[in-house]
Amino acid sequence: MLLFNSLARAKEPFALPTGRPVTLYVCGVTPYDTTHMGHARTYLVFDVLVRYLRWQGAEVRYCQNVTDVDDPLFERAKRDGVGWQELAERQVAQYQEDCRGLNILPPTYFPRASEEIGAMLPIIERLIELGHAYVADGNVYFSVRTDPDFGKMARMGYDELLATANQRGNDPGDPRKRDPLDFVLWQTGKPDDPTWESPWGLGRPGWHIECSAMATRYLGDQVDIHGGGADLIFPHHPCEIAQTEPVTGKRPFVRVWMHAGLVWLDGEKMSKSLGNLVFARDALREHGPDPLRWYLLSQHYREEFDYRREAVAQYVALALQLRQAAGARGTEGAPLDLSRAHAEFSAAMAEDLNTPAALAVLHTMIGDTLAAAAEGRDVTNASATVRDLATMLGFTLSA
Ligand SMILES: [Zn+2]
After folding, report:
1. d(CA 335, CA 333)
2. What is the pLDDT at residue 330?
3. Mean pLDDT of 261-280
């Protein structure tokens, strides 16, 4: 199969490993708010990837973290006058419920950053020893000048890298930094923020180091596929590469970097600040899991998705036909042969998870199966094929 690797900016062959599982790490949620359609799309795309790999016979070891050491969580907890752990607990439970509703399979490992601090400290210590990081006033920073390839995935010059990092939480004015693009590995944090013991005093980790620690702890020094939303192409994922490879001594840290395009709403970027979020649970309640899944997979995962509420309705009828074709009976007459369509479906999926093309083939198969069943033909194999492919794509086939 071919997968688009964001680091190479090209589709590359991905061979299933022999004698070991495929390892997959997907950056998880910060549990302070409700699952919106951007989250739903990203985790649904990786759910289809996992199902597709398993469908081909691979064992998949899938780690998805919970970013429960992060500013937005602490700020929200303070604003609402609740403990950050209590808020995180509640939001993680809600997120899991939303995933179950969307028929997204749970990951093999679901670690929380707050419980993995012990795995982060040795990586930071080693980066200091190697000269890639420095201590200033209880904070530890990664020195981007020590990595000539820093930020390569983003394909940007220094000024653009810095501007992008600044939009996404970087503090360029921090006087302790040697370079405004240096990123924090350990920080003293704001007063009232939770802290942990470290060789540099009480503090907490930076966001990027959390994922390096959890990915290597659960999946090993090298990971087959690492994914997330397209907003992680910079700075989060390049920071992970920069801080992981010198410590493990193994390159590449990740064989394939996969990113799901961001979700828009009616032509506007869906964001908390614009207040135009669509929540997964509302859409689920309104449409059910199968129409929503079909809609979200109807565009290629790397493209940005413009979510339109009125567009979901047409997928309700499709999901109903899918269910009917999957349950079609009819054992007289010439059997319907879907083997050619099956091959086309497989070829589409093998081409960087081309779900729009695969769904177009499935749509034809559904029509053919229902027509043949209406004519009284034998659709035993055809409906079994439809069921198999639909289940592989994660459809529940329930009303
Ligand atoms: Zn991450």
Report:
1. 6
2. 78
3. 88
What's the CA-to-centroid distance between 28 and ligand 1, angstroms? 7
Expressed in angstroms and rounded, the spacing between residue 263 Cα and the centre of ligand 1 is 19
At 192, the pLDDT band (50, 70, 90 cuts) reads confident
Give me the mean pLDDT over the 279-295 stretch.
96
**Are the C-beta atoms of 350 and 308 separated by less than 8 Å?**
no
**What tokens appear for 391 in the block?**
């289940």
CA–centroid distance, 66 to ligand 1, in Å, is: 9
Predicted confidence band of residue 55 (pLDDT cuts 50, 70, 90): very high
| E strand segments, the chain | 2-5, 10-13, 22-26, 60-64, 133-136, 139-142, 183-187, 204-205, 223-229, 254-260, 263-265, 268-269, 305-307
Query: For residues 336 and 382, is the Cβ–Cβ distance under 8 A?
Result: yes
What separation in Å is there between the alpha carbon of 309 and the centre of ligand 1? 30
Residue with the two structure tokens 């739903």: 40
Average pLDDT score over the chain: 96
- For the chain, the domains span 313-392
With a cut of 90, say whether residue 381 has pLDDT above it: yes
How remote is the CA of residue 371 from the centroid of ligand 1, in Å?
A: 47
Scan for tokens 């020094």, then name that residue. 221
Instruction: For 313-392, give the CATH class.
Output: mainly alpha
